[in-house]
Specification:
Layout: H1 2-14, H2 16-23, H3 41-58, H4 68-99
Helix pairs in contact: 3-4
Length: 100
Amino acid sequence: MKYAILASLFVAAAAPFPAALAAEPAATLRIGLDDIDLTTPRGTEAAQRRIDRAVGAFCRNDVEHLSVGGRRAARECREALRGDALAQLDTRRAQQLAAR
């Protein structure tokens, strides 16, 4: 009987933690591209370089000393952020081209 009560207390005490972690706000990466003309190839290349630098600084780039899981997480972070940023870049480029 004591063991069942202790187990249920442990489960009840641990239950709020995942909810607290899920409620934690995600970090946001903002890259300023307002000063770049995305309608030119040179402007697009400059924006891509700026995105690559920002993503590298945001996600861990010094992965030599990390575990395999840490390296994978850093790589996934870079790939996901770069993909999202490039998709937004394409949208913004299309808007600038349409505004011409």
